[in-house]
Write a structure and sequence with these properties.
The complex is a heterodimer of chains A (about 150) and B (about 160). Chain A is an alpha+beta fold. Chain A is built from two helices and four strands, in the order ααββββ. The chains are: A alpha+beta (about 150), B alpha+beta (about 160).
Chain lengths: ~150, ~160
């Protein structure tokens, strides 16, 4: 009877030890892999916003044009959602600028079939000019996720 | 007398079977541990190597697309550090062509990737290759390729940077 009790103890200890080892073994590689993937996704999201800003695509506020440009630049297998918040000048001459007059924001989603899962976020603000005056101040937020 | 002798023999047998069983278990555990250890060490080594390559690719890609290089108007005769940027994510075409005319070994030394081979490629969004420099990876070799988005000659362009051993 004593021997039996000892075997149960040993068995229980072994199961717990195996469970801990398995948990460590399965969790470690995932943590290492995610770092590169996350850095890559963050860099891609930032790159896309910078390029779309610098080549004047975002400033057009033309949603079809922006959608096509975004779809071309997103790597295969990735989904993306671009939210743009647009603010107008507080007066017609635009000699003062108050970030309160928000006009209707818009969102563009690429690959709607897959839900957002652990997206990375990139943000960029930009100005739209009209006749050498600031017309809009906008904030673009791009979420990118592995579809 | 006969009974006593039988009893002694039986005890000795029981000890031997315990000992053999324990030895088998210990040897089995040692062999299992050594094989798991070796497998993990090899797996860790290859992960560490891949992780090193990934870090290198991330930092070199940043250097190429964000830095103008040293000196900022470098050419293939006076380059101290390679950078291709006119400004953030905008490549200077002259620097790109200077870069691709550099000797491969000199480029590897300047980028700090002496032990690796690399491939640098610019593609437009229709997948046409505009610039290619470096060595193409050999089949079966582990390659780390990173994609960045840049402006090249005014157009959105895909920059691939790959490292392999």
């Amino acid at each position: 009877m004593k021997g039996f009790a000892f075997t149960l103890d040993a068995l229980l200890a072994m199961i717990i030890a195996l469970a801990i080892l398995t948990a460590i073994y399965t969790m470690m590689p995932k943590a290492q892999r995610d770092y590169f993937l996350e850095s890559y996704e963050t860099k891609i999201a930032n790159d896309i916003l910078i390029v779309l800003n610098k080549n004047g695509t975002l400033e057009t506020h033309d949603q079809t044009f922006i959608r096509n440009a975004l779809a071309e630049l997103l790597p295969d297998g990735y989904g993306g959602r671009l939210n743009v918040y647009v603010y107008e000048c507080s007066n017609p001459t635009c000699d003062s600028f108050v970030i309160s007059n928000q006009i209707v924001p818009y969102a563009i989603t690429i690959d709607k079939s897959t839900p957002e899962k652990d997206p990375v976020l990139a943000k960029r603000s930009f100005l739209t000019f009209d006749k050498n005056r600031i017309k809009y101040y906008s904030i673009a937020e791009l979420r990118v996720w592995l579809a | 007398m006969v009974k006593m002798s039988y009893s002694k023999k039986s005890k000795a047998q029981l000890f031997m079977s315990d000992f053999i069983m324990a030895s088998v278990i210990v040897i089995f555990i040692i062999i299992l541990s050594v094989s798991i250890w070796n497998r993990n060490v090899n797996s860790l080594k290859s992960k560490e190597e891949r992780s090193g390559m990934e870090s290198l690719v991330l930092s070199i890609s940043d250097q190429l697309i964000r830095s103008p290089g040293i000196p900022s108007d470098w050419n293939k005769n006076n380059v101290l550090a390679i950078g291709l940027a006119a400004e953030d994510n905008t490549l200077d075409a002259a620097k790109v062509y200077n870069f691709t005319s550099l000797d491969i070994d000199k480029t590897k030394n300047l980028l700090g990737i002496g032990n690796y081979n690399f491939i640098f490629r610019l593609r437009n969004t229709s997948e046409t290759v505009l610039v290619e420099y470096g060595d193409l990876p050999i089949d079966g070799k582990e390659v780390v390729i990173l994609r960045r988005i840049v402006l090249f000659e005014g157009l959105p362009t895909i920059m691939d940077l790959g490292l392999w051993k």
